[in-house]
Fold each of these.
Amino acid sequence: MAQQSKRYRALRDKVKPDPVPLADAVKQLKQFGTTKFNQTVEVSTNLGIDPRQSDQNVRGSVALPHGIGKTVRVAVFAQGDNAEKARAAGADIVGGDDLAQKIKAGFMDFDVALATPDMMGVVGPLGRVLGPRGLMPSPRSGTVTTDITAGVKEFKAGKIEFRSDKGGNVAAAVGKISFSDDDLIENITAFLNHLRSVKPAAAKGAYIRSVTISATMSPGIRVVQ
């Protein structure tokens, strides 16, 4: 840990305090890719919302142009034809009551959970388990859908979910540090554009107050709005 801490401090000292253009931020961040593993790149934003107000919570999903550079494990709550469609589309696990029971028993070996609307009676009681982990299927995030084939394929290809936290912040993984500059810029731009498109009508004043990009083992770099 001492070596990591020294490395982190050295990198942090190279970061300018003022925001820089996105292209410059990405270029500098990629220079921080000096670890033995392929770090995940994340965008963190602070929004001008009141998270205490339910009509100002921000939640959604967006398909990034270049995916996120990892295998996404998709669980699907479906039955009958929809269950077959989910399997054919590449879902990692498909079920109904049986899947719900597995999750209640502690099974969490998936990154996203999808459901068809007719399965919400089964999914609803799992809110206390899935909700805190950000895995509860929701129409707002595109994880409750009538087109389960498209849903599975989009999330397997790198569609991401996001939601605001209690501090009015939204963070999302947008790729790997091994991505090209252009691919990272396009992914980050797609995420920010979609985030702007879901601004709550009740939010007043500046919406996106700050944007920071970082990698798993690297300090954050502030980006010009």
Note: The longest strand covers residues 40-47.
Amino acid sequence: MEYATLNNKIKMPMAGIGTFLLSPDEAESSVLSALGCGYRLIDTANAYVNEKAVGRAMKKSGVPREEIFLETKLWPAFYEQENAVEKTLERLDTDYIDLLLIHQPAGNYVAGYRLMEKAYKEGMVKAIGLSNFNENQIKEILDICTVKPAVLQTELHPYSQERKLKSFLDKEGIVVQAWYPLGHGDKKLINEPLFSKLAEKYNKSNAQIMLRWHIQSGNIVIPGSKNPEHIKANFDLFDFALTDDEMAQIAAMDKQKRYYTSTPDMLKSYARMVPDVDGQK
């Protein structure tokens, strides 16, 4: 495993498993499979409505809690609930969260960030950060925070490399984490001839080449999967390295093409949406 060192000296694995769009049963099975393969980073969220399942998988795995880097995200509906972090801990059945993020720049996200700062100072959370924030929104948090965000989770892949944003984050000491690291499963991206050529050279899959590019670019990756073989393959990234020339060739693929872009109306709808976190299995 390779690690990123966060701005508060916490070490975070560079590769983990995501649980977006997984049902509770699927999330429990995938996390158990991932932990059995050696994964130690798990990503979930209030809005995924599978935190209880993730907590069960962690317990069933037999992996000591201190070896697991657990990450979850607060949803806008809970930003102004004083006990939102405590309730999240209860669902995950754990005493602490390694990384807690503001999920969306919607609703009263400054209040949500204040909640996270309080939880950080009280030891319930080891690090805090942001998800889906743009540069101006990050600057807004930097202007008011007492605990600096350690991580930004955002869409990143070879078609959307966000060089300007990454340069800003680097100057601020904020580590970037990629969701949609494989481009939302876009076959055109995955089957790019360059990836096929490199996959043959290194005896890897096209997806493994893309994930290795992320890691060497400093992007933490959390691909999700329900398939045990894919889960295992998505972690088999640490026995080879791309050359500087190969990294440059992939960098040249940037089209600034995103698969997700939020709008003001979408953010308003997020602020109104209340996930059924209490009714989850």
Note: The mean pLDDT is 97.
Amino acid sequence: MEEAKYIWQDGKLIDWKDATTHVLSHSLHYGNATFEGTRAYMTKKGLAIFRLEDHTKRLLNSCKILVLNCPYSFDEINKAHIELLKANLDCYTQNVYIRPLVFLGYGVMGLYHAKAPVNMIIAAWNWGAYLGEEGIENGIRVKTSSFVRNPIKATMGRAKASANYLNSQMAKYEAIECGFDEALLLDDSGFIAEGSGECFFIVRNGKLITPPNDNSLESITQDSVIQIANDLGIEIERRRITRDEVYIADEAFFTGTAAEVTPIRELDFRAIGNGKRGEITKRLQDEFFSITKGENPKYDKFLTYIN
């Protein structure tokens, strides 16, 4: 990881190396924490955070679901993002990944968490394409995981909870060790849920299809792509998808803050379409990156400029 100068921690900027916490912090032992993945992009007007307010709203919604009494308001969290990026501006040489985290700190042990102190940090650093620049252009190889997405009857999928990502971590590990780039997880009924940290789309006969968020996070990038597709006149369908339907799809791709819009060229040793980035995927990619670069005035509302 490429370090920056400062991290925002509990209301103030501190040196990156000093952003530490106690080994008996509650969240470290029991997993009750919530976070966001947010990006800031280099534009002609300077660095701009993509859909900052939507990410902050989702962070606070997650806190409510997990009964984490976040000590900071919506406006305070937005201002803290801007303050941090301004302080680190000289460190950023490319697009920036931002990680706000609300967690339970030191002072209470045991499963009952309500009396544990609530802490918050925001960190931001240079980070390029999560699944690789080559993957953005040529697509990635994906394996259906042996791990099932957390069932909604057991966890709360609307919260971006740290604990929810354990099976994602295991699925990602399995996929990489098997020679693939990413994992695709099914739900407990056997339908496509999402990637280890991404939402999933296919294209069939010119129609864009993506599963509902029944047991997965309400994705901000997924929503952005749906809005873009509407603007481009692409028909959209929200419905369940089976694994064998993916095999015969014309195109497939992942979306997410980290993954952005990443084509899938192969699933389970079966080429998707012609085994390359599809035409509709490229159109959506091009428009998405145009928006993040500040080149589409209609979507300037998505950007919070830093300088």
Note: Residues 24 and 51 are 34 Å apart (CA to CA).
Amino acid sequence: MYKAQDLIRIAKREQNQKRNYLVLNRLQGKHIPVSPKQALSMFDALAETFQGTIVPEQTLLIGFAETATAIGAAAAVKLGTYYIQTTRETLAGADYLYFQEEHSHAAEQRLVKNGLDAVFPKLRQIVFIEDEVTTGNTILNMIAVLEREYPGRVSYAVASILNGMDENAQERFKDRGIRLFYLVKTDHADYPGKAEQYTQEGSYFLAGRLPRSDVRPMEYTVSGGMDARSLVEAGDYHKACLHLWEEVKRQLPAPFTGDVLVLGTEEFMYPALFCARRIEEAGAQVRFHATTRSPIAVFKEKQYPLHFRYELPSFYEESRRTFLYELRAYRHVLIFTDAPRTQREGIEALVRAVAANRQDISVVWWEHRWQAGTDGI
């Protein structure tokens, strides 16, 4: 049984006029480093809340980018459903369904339509997977788009780690027959005040001001990747992640021991978390988190969740800022990404950030060939 105090930490958004606070989940593995086992156990617990209500081969799980991509993938793998994540990236040859995300610094979301057309007649249920639901407006926006594109008899449900919906929002979903599943109910009333109580500014590091490093990471390429930005069958996706792990074990020169950091990049989280758990099972002390688009203020106060922030170019688009929080010293650092290898500025900046705390750095590039129409279907 999870409780709010076990999971929730309140942070302050940077220059966001829609909402001044951000709810961070300390076990989610996005902004705050976490044991892979703890993260995946929580994701499995969420899947179990609605497991008895679905027929897997007739169900599609949709995970929201970027913070819920690993949650959705883990739930789909556990339950054996179809899976797709929303995205803000551009895939060559993709057709998109567009919708708006409430409260976000990057409001436009996309759902890749290729692949959905073929599978939608088989579907009877769609479950939206989120880390947190507050108003529910983003999900209603997506349902409106899906109903317009695919009219028919599909039922909808929402599964989230946290549910901060008020009574009116919950009634709107109940009136439409949309079931809500969650692990923890939250009340946002005092969150704005909590976000404003900190005064001791934390440590900010800009990519252009990071010291040059002589460290050259070991770089490895693994083919056979699968991109969950388009529709996949969870069983096939699981096999692809197993292949990734087997190749990591084969290519990397030595077993990992001691403190190990595994990093994902932006929307690309689950395959990295999958491998992080395998390293942890082998006996290493592993922490996992990921780079993110979210600009969050950092403060020195001990009770505040984030104290160090690195601002870096994105692996996926060099003109875009991404952020990494709470770096510390580790014996080994593994960076997993599915970004194009041509984007060197981002990787070089991240390596400089990590190199200040560690010399042993490896980068694993998971190559996938996305094709319009199918990816694992």
Note: Residues 371-377 have pLDDT under 50 and may be disordered.
